[in-house]
Amino acid sequence: MLGKYFFHKEKVHFYQPGEEIRIDKNKHFYQNDSLNSVKARIALASVAFFCIYAILVFRLFDLCIIQARDVTSAIDYTQDDEFKHILKYTANPIKRADILDRNGTIIATSLPTVHLYAQPHKIRNKSVVAQKLSAILEDLSTETILQKLHKGKFVYIKRNLTPSQQYQINALGIPGLEFEKSEKRIYPHKNLFAHIIGATNIDNEGISGLEKQLDSRLTQSDIPLSLSIDAGLQDTIRTELAAAVDKFHAEGAAAILMDVRNGEILSMISLPDFDPNSNNNIPERAQFNFTTKGVYEPGSVLKIFNAALGLESGKVKVTDKFDATQPLKLRYNIIKDYRGENRWLDLPEILIYSSNIGSARIALRVGKNEQRRFLDNMGFFKPIKSIELAEKGIPLVPSEKNWSESTIATVGYGYGISITPLHLISAFASVVNGGTYFSPTLLKNNQNKESHRTLSYNTSMQMRKLLRGVVVEGSGKRANVAGYEVAGKTGTAQKLVNGRYIDKKVMTSFLATFPVSDPKYALFLMMDEPKATKETWGFVTSGWNTVPTAGKIITAIAPQLNLPANDDISDSRRERIINAAYTVRKK
């Protein structure tokens, strides 16, 4: 039933039937006691709710602030390194950016994970807790967990729990067991990029390779880092290189593929390698990146730079001949040829037959000062700082004071200085690309790389022809892949063991470029102590192991690089094309 109403002071007031309406002498309006009692009850309920709420807030404040402060004051946490780490991670969680190859393939990423840690002073029955945890964490024994629970104020029980393990431990509801959010670095391709990427430690901090060198970049930005490396090329080259190591029973091997037009590294491999997903019990040799840190006497591949030095100095011409009829006798050294021709040789023949005598005579004609300046400009006297890896080899080079006549000669044919494979291929790229040295880089489209001129375009053109001759007629024949115009130079250097060079312990190398009429790529291969086989007729020199391996690699990667095979072009026609290009550029 609708209520009735009446007018009072020009206002309408509604009331229910049966209600008593009273108006005092001041004309104030009042309802009956029934409505007043309802208001009183609501007020009382509000007060009660407020009191309960206040009690709850006070209790939470007591538990979270006052009692927690009492606990922290009772224990000196500031001296506990693991607790410091927990506080640091909570305040500023580590987030590492993904690392991609040049085509966007993920080669390093981070996944969310949790660590289980304990505060032993809060755990009462440690033996029971250890048994329960051991049942869930099957790789940890009860004794191991119990030992952890009896030491320190904060101790990690296990890192990187699985979701199932976290759920089961959380369901136990044991005070003193806590979870720490974290990230775990994952390398989907395992060994494939081991020496490039490196690894991180248990705290997700870079400890080697690119992870260490670019740790700040990877942790301060979540933008993925794009490398110049091509995952497909990396896989192809590693497969062939590993097969060669197995075939020739070598101690190790290395390979680098570089774009000679900008210094970008498309592939870099050092064997043996390791799986960066597991940092436990990795052999020391497997951790060593020979491509950037391994300094060695490269042997005859250094004759490339000796020949370029002679031409660039103007003191040597392609047609000049040098006496190689007998060993070259110096004051403290006698230089011989391996299976020598025993006749006068011109510059192309010195490279084709890899004459030590002829190379030494070229170096002696040029002289010490020009030799040192040229090699220094090639980058052979200092570490390569531009490469984005923590592992950088320091060249072993005699001082100017100790750079004697013997040093001039021995450096001319590949001994006397020790450098890394990265030094070799970076300088070699400048020899064949027209004379410009590009600082090597592992980053795609690196805008910070530097360049400088090492030799003239004319000298570069001459060197292309000379190196093509080595592959067509000399020790590089087994790398003469039809249609791809391969040019290069072999090198076999005896290893120095206890101060003596050992004949059968050698390091073989091969430096190549293709296509030589318009060089785009340079390939370096090295094998450490390859053994002779029936197939090699007992020889261990480069022409029998690294060269055929290079031939297989070039055959496999050329299509991946979108290089069409020029099978319809004969060698003589290629020669005419090179000469024509050289003549036009010279004019």
In summary, what is this structure?
Helices cover 38% and strands 20% of the residues.
Name the descriptors.
single chain, 587 residues, alpha+beta, Penicillin-binding protein 2a (Domain 2), Beta-lactamase, five-stranded antiparallel beta sheet, 38% helix
List the helices and strands and how they pair.
Blueprint: E1 4-8, E2 11-15, E3 22-23, E4 29-30, H1 33-74, H2 81-91, E5 99-100, E6 106-118, H3 126-136, H4 142-149, E7 155-158, H5 163-172, E8 177-186, H6 194-197, E9 199-200, E10 206-208, H7 209-213, H8 215-220, E11 225-226, H9 231-247, E12 252-259, E13 265-271, H10 284-287, H11 290-293, H12 303-313, E14 321-323, E15 328-329, E16 334-335, E17 344-346, H13 347-352, H14 356-366, H15 368-377, H16 405-412, H17 421-432, E18 436-438, E19 451-453, H18 457-473, E20 487-497, E21 500-514, E22 521-528, H19 546-557, H20 571-586
Parallel strand pairs: 5-11
Antiparallel strand pairs: 1-2, 3-4, 5-6, 6-7, 6-8, 9-10, 12-13, 12-22, 14-17, 15-16, 18-19, 20-21, 21-22
CATH third-tier fold name of the largest domain: Beta-lactamase
Structural class: alpha+beta
- CATH second-level architecture of the largest domain: 3-Layer(aba) Sandwich
**Average of the residue pLDDT scores:** 87
In the predicted model, the low-confidence regions spanning at least 5 consecutive residues are 1-15, 27-31, 68-79, 85-92, 580-587
Largest sheet: 5 strands, mixed
Query: Helix amount, in percent?
Result: 25-40%
Cα(first) to Cα(last) distance is 114 Å
Say which CATH homologous superfamily of the largest domain is assigned.
Answer: DD-peptidase/beta-lactamase superfamily
> What is the overall silhouette?
elongated
